[in-house]
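Whether sequence alone determines local backbone shape is best considered at the level of individual chains. When preparing material for the folding task, we compiled for one chain both its residues and its backbone structure tokens. The sequence in question and its structure tokens are set out directly beneath this paragraph.
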Amino acid sequence: MKRRLVETLEMKLVVEPNLDIVTDNMIAEWGAVPYPALSVLLVHLKFLSAVHQNHHWVTKGEPFYGDHLLFQRLYEGVTCEVDSVAEKAIGLGSTANVDLVLQTSQCFKLVQGYGMTTTIPQPTELAKRSYLAEMNFLKVASHLVAHMKECGTLTRGLDNLIAGIEDKHEGHVYLLKQRIMSQ
């Protein structure tokens, strides 16, 4: 029964169908910065970190402590990735790649795009929302790598950095699936 639940959730929660279009629009918003795809990756990581951190703060009920620690583990890991990607974006590109105003604007668009409202979700929805955010992130990362290959901006080091980040997020997906199955 639990296996079926997860398969059903995967069917309902899999990625946003227009995510590639949304990502391409975000790249275009970065204009002439040297590595716009890195800037978009950074925005998605900041958004993902905020989602997990918010879930860390608002979790309650049974099993509060386990969920509290799970979401803490997720957002703290993403925070390190944010720093690595930002430094790479500046190193390969320029400080224009980390424009705070544009990052904030695009994060807000992601909040709206995920249908998040001002209401705090029920504790049973937190893992599902984090799972959806992780699945979407993996799709975005894959799309951005393809974009950089096409543009000739994907260095070996950058490819290694992003592959390591994707690997970690596949681990996040595993942890969140386990949590969802236990509900």
Summary: Residues 12 and 142 are 21 Å apart (CA to CA). The chain has seven helices and no strands.
